[in-house]
Amino acid sequence: MEIFGLIGEKLEHSFSKKYFNKKFSKLGLHENKYENFEINSLENLKKILSKNNIKGLNVTIPFKKIIIPLLDKISDEAKEINAVNTIKIVNGQTIGFNTDITGFEKSINKEIDNRKKAIILGDGGASNAIKYVLEKKKIECVIVSRKGKINYHSLHDDIIKESDLIINTTPLGTFPKISLFPNINYKILNEKHLLYDLVYNPKLTVFLKKGLERGCKVKNGYEMLEIQAEESWKIWNN
Question: Residue 110, CB half-sphere, CA atoms under 13 Å: how many?
Fold first, then answer.
């Protein structure tokens, strides 16, 4: 049996387990299994790896950055953005990759022609992948976070007006806390803005609904999640 899994803090409503186990069933890989490893600390990582015949792992909040020192190797892209969301285990060695990059890039390619400036809400591991893709496409990025250089209180309306792409990389609005949303001035949004939310459950977060009310284009993170999952599968089987 080959075991794959997801490590993170709160995984009850996660996408990956259902997605991969359905995939294994379709492919006839009945000996394969995908499990959630819900942990509060990475101190448990070695125990997870030693107790299970694990071939690959996905990594989610809040471990994408802090897991890096515990890995034997990481890919050049993962090193550049300082975030890992996929781990391949080969002969006991852990190798870190980042498939958020490809997931985001492929899911938004058709939407960002001629966009010049973006606001990225949040500064976690996913935020690093988003910034990497946008800068590659010559789109200027402003990072907004609670404790960053620019926070939600200091985010000036002019920056919002100038930015035609606003991306939420925080978990705000994720089920079951669906009433939460990033605290920005939605009143100045208009049809030139694209709001992209990495949250996929619910399909329409309050963040996206507020954008729709102002005539914005909106997109959630489900397609990105599917693409990054398939990229993980390619890595584990390469």
Answer: 5
